[in-house]
Amino acid sequence: EIYDVMAKWDPDSLVDYGGWGIKKIKFFITNANPNIKVKVWEGPDAVEIYSKTVVNYNVNDWTEVTLDSIIPFDHTQELYVGYNVDMSMMELGGIVTATDDGPPVDNYGNLVRWNGQWLSEYNNHNLRVLFQEVVNADFTADELEVCVGGSVNFTDLTDITPVSWNWTFEGGTPATSTEQNPMVTYNSAGTFNVELVVTTSSGTNVTVLKEDYIDAVILAEAPDTPTGDTDICPDQNTTYSTNTVQYADWYDWEVTPAEAGTFSGFGKNVMFIPSDTWSGDYTIKVRAVNACGDGAWSNELNCTLNEGPTEYYLSEGGFLCVDSEGLEITLSGSDIGVDYYLLYAGDTVSGPIAGTSEEISFGYFTEEGYYTSIAFNGDCSSYMIGDALITIIDILPEAVGTPTGPETVCADTISEYIIEAVENANSYIWTIIPEEAGAIEGDSLIGIVNWNATYEGVAEIAARAQNDCGAGPSGSSLEVMAYAEPTPNIAGDELVCQYDYGTYAVDFSEYSQYEWTVSGGIIIEGEGSNEIVVYWTAPQGSINTVDVTETKIETCETVAETFEVTIDQCVGIKEMEKTDLIVYPNPAKNQVTIKLDGVPNGLVDLQLMDSKGKLVIYENHYLTSNSLKSTLNLSTLNNGLYIIVIRSKNQILIHRKLVLIR
Predict the structure, then answer these.
(1) pTM higher than 0.70 for the full model?
(2) N or C: which end of the chain has fewer CB atoms below 10 A?
């Protein structure tokens, strides 16, 4: 039966031991036991946080077990330390639990737990625990490499402030120090160790040794003359090298003139990347650098960067239909004195072709794959720019999709339409139907339409893909509504009477919307159409205006030239001013009586209009006694100002204001 034998510490007894840990556990057993383990538990439920099996132990004597490392614990929780044994093979008793260099056990020195239960009958066992402060000692230096005669400042980084410091500086002056943060001078070259021993208030000693920590160096000597290629071409990256120089941290390389190229790296072996725009003689030199400064330059290496052939563009190739004569491959330019070659799969298939200062042709080719070109000028070679890819096809391209772009346009504008690429196509054919709708241009995925200024109606835009084998089927068309730009021109009555009507119109288009505005009158019919009727109320002799904006789509809109209307000095109203017009009651409520004498016999119109010029009551009378009398029902009308108008033979005889108040 396996039992946990332990001592317990309450958080109150651990309050001063934050940052401490358990270093050793000692136990005393009276019989051999194959299952002994030393353990550490933590928390109110005694959860195990460390366990170590003990193989070699003493019987009837103390066994001291040094743990793998100092085991830290949470000083704010319960702590249990002890061992794990088979209780059936031993007896407990003898020595009460105690601690070394740590918190006292107090009243919990003897605890036994079996199967999760605390057993009170076992009240003595043999256990001692060694506590030790957990110290993380370290240090740093402001310089790890120093020139001979220079000084280094060391800084203690120990997390718990020690009570003493003992430094040892190999090769340094002073050789030892007890300061916390000493300064040390190195007067001879070499690589040296540094050791620090710190002691805490509990007497714990911790040693930190950093081997080969400080390099004391002297100014580096001049390196040997660099080695490497001395005759190179623009596209020939070259490695230059020198010897290893003692005390060198890195190597500083220099090329003269600087425009000859650049270096990659700072070691004794560096890559030189020559310029592709400069040629001529140049020199290379190098020096070693360390903490003492820059060493002397090496002797110079004399080199030459030859001029390479100018790089021209190789044609891109394309699709080649089966059984065709081949695809021509060209070079965009050439130079006299330079030979040009065309390569396929690494083999020369055309050339040498002498440069002519113009574009050159390598001929026609039928093999599928990539073609490259290289040029030689006697000193250097250069690959030309790009690859020519020939792709063999034996089918026509598939139908392209429906173009995308504006579906409503204004004439005399330019629109862009786009399609998605299809397999095996090297160009595209765009069409527009009917042709009088406009002109379409483009042989790629984009078609540009220049719309005809006079066309109005639906047009269809489509595209088809083609390759060297021919053109594929036409794709679905996109229907586009093209609107001719509006050209409204107002026509109508230029001379009207006050309180008379005028008609004004522009040419009708089924695609247009019309927005009218007038000054000096009221639109009583036709708002939103191409023809309106205006009731003119402006003073006699005044000049008023009629305007209209004709719109087909947002970008297709025209404002007509302003139409002027003059209110004439009409005689009809002047003659009737002497007549006797009676309106009663005025203001009125539900009805009003109108009486007018001296009216010419014949057909007479009686009209009642609201303040906006809308006709609300109309009566037609045929007079034989030169007198008009009528009572109007106003019960359905709203309160407000109304105008009574009496007309005869298209002339206004008289008008009068009527106020309706209930």
Answers:
(1) no
(2) N
